[in-house]
Amino acid sequence: MAEVLKEIQERDLPEYESIQASGICSSDELRKLMVERERYEKKLIQSKKSIINYIEYIQFEKNTHKWVTEKENQLHCSLPDVKRSIIQRIIKLYRNGTQQFPQEERLWKSFIQFSKKSNPGQVSGIYEKMLGYHGDKDTVWCDYGLWAYEFTHQLKQVTEIFFRALKRHPASEVINLAFFDILIKETARITDVSNAIDLMERQLGLERAVVLYRNTKTKIKNVAYYLKLLERCEEPSYINCTVLLQKEIIEDLMKNFFAEPMVWDFLAQRELRGYNMIDLQEVTVQQVAELQERQMETDEVNIPHESIWKSRSLKLRIELCFKVYEKAVVALPTEAMWSYFINAMLDLNHDIKSEGDVKRHCLAKAFNMGHKSQLMSIVHYQALVEMLLKSPNGLQQVEIILQEALECKKSEANKIYELWMQVYSKTGNQSKFYEIFCRANNELGVTKCIDLWHLAIKFYEAYSEEHGKKLMVILQEAAKQIHPEFATFRAYYLEYTMRNESLAKARELYDEMCQMPPPCLDLHKKMIEIELQAKTKSTPTSRLRLCYENAVHYFGKTNTDVWIDLLKFERDMGDLKLVSVIYDRAKSTLDPELVDSFIAEYSLLKVLE
């Protein structure tokens, strides 16, 4: 090892001499740099080196390079040889690291990222080596192809990379999308040049994009992929030149994915963006050819949508969009399709500065149609209710709509009742609120109304001064329920009693509720909290001990925490003599698979004493 280190020191000597001669640091700082570097070198010479050794050393050298650059700026000097030496060392570390640990994808990516800035000419070679180990990952191929396009702009080289990638990953969406993007980008770039040869080249690029699309049809079955392709074609630079491809994609979508709501949603949104289906259906190859000729004859780079997409007012585009959704909910009468429809109308109404009346009319019509269809979601009923409550006679309409919704959406009756109670909560109508609460419990059964009980307690707590008795009645009823989810109400009931009555009353209630099934751990925790808050130096610990003992009585078989809490209590506030007894009780009571975990927690507790 000593000989290797000596050789490295001799190799790095010119760098140290340059640093010393420049005066950018003191002798001590330079010595510290040398010692640190030697420490990292020693780790790499060891037989049991790890990936961390390379990562730490590389980061150290990057920090050193940054430090030298900062010193250059501060002292207005230049040290190109020193910086070059550091960069070469970093590159060597990356090469050795990737050779030693070729399966570490992150190290390869870090190497590539560094080389893009310091040595871009070598990036292609690094990618090629990386693919030997990580060619099974389509994202690596995709990154390689995109970088090659950005760095070289050599379509032939880029195409070869993507062809190799597709041979390995024929059904990869990321590779196909990236390649498609490049092909139509190249097409748009060539369009800017006005001569026949480039026009032919552009046409060839378009044909490649079409072939790529057609090849994927048998391999990729994800509808979202084809919608992304169509979205790419809509970009301003490509919207005209890809029009025939758009037409083909839409025809295939309607043929293969007719039952997908997102397809109909996308087509409706296209109408809103001004890309009308009638315009698309009427376009011909001849029209596209004529447009290409005009592009060749003019010196202007950007040609308007003149002969393909007719200009339409926002009002007309909204109406056309609405018509597509109307057709969609007839073709696909599902809750999902109705959700797309109503969400689109809600989005339109976020901005009503222009064509506000048209947008509001469309939203109202969509809500009305959705309600009549019996397929509108609860979320949209909530939006409808909020809208109606802003109108003069809205409450009466809301009551009618929610009653009708209850009759047709029985599986979601609890959600509708919850929405109904929220309406009366907002309007402050206590009697109606309680009426709906009782009605829901009677019709659905208490166990299906847990959310309604939470809502009722929250409502009456807000009006506790006027309706304190009603809140107490609800809490008492909630505490009596034997369904496990209702057990949590007992802790709240206990807290409410302490807050509004007395400690003695809270203790009495706690003792009573301890006997009620099912057991509730939160009840014991809450009583412990109350006892601790009320405790003084003269207060006996018997009541606190009772709470901890109750917790281990009911939950000590399956919960190690209750035993640890009891042990802490006896250690800090109770009787130290009981600690060892409780420890033995815990080990004999807990399920066997929890004993080791408990012993470990107890050992940690002793260490932290």
Helices and strands in order, then pairings?
Elements: H1 2-22, H2 27-45, H3 51-75, H4 80-100, H5 105-118, H6 123-134, H7 138-152, H8 155-168, H9 173-191, H10 196-216, H11 223-233, H12 243-256, H13 261-273, H14 277-282, H15 285-297, H16 314-331, H17 335-348, H18 356-373, H19 378-388, H20 394-408, H21 413-427, H22 430-444, H23 450-462, H24 464-480, H25 488-500, H26 503-513, H27 521-534, H28 542-555, H29 560-572, H30 578-589, H31 592-607
Helix pairs in contact: 1-2, 2-3, 3-4, 4-5, 5-6, 6-7, 7-8, 7-9, 8-9, 9-10, 9-11, 11-12, 13-16, 13-17, 16-17, 17-18, 19-20, 19-21, 20-21, 21-22, 21-23, 23-24, 24-25, 25-26, 25-27, 26-27, 27-28, 28-29, 29-30, 29-31, 30-31
Explain this structure.
- By secondary structure, the protein is mainly α.
- Among the domains are: 1-101, no CATH class; 170-311, no CATH class; 482-555, no CATH class; 559-609, no CATH class.
- Helix content is 77%, strand content 0%.
- The protein has helices at residues 2-22, 27-45, 51-75, 80-100, 105-118, 123-134, 138-152, 155-168, 173-191, 196-216, 223-233, 243-256, 261-273, 277-282, 285-297, 314-331, 335-348, 356-373, 378-388, 394-408, 413-427, 430-444, 450-462, 464-480, 488-500, 503-513, 521-534, 542-555, 560-572, 578-589, 592-607.
- The longest helix has 25 residues, at 51-75.
- It is flat, with a radius of gyration of 37 Å.
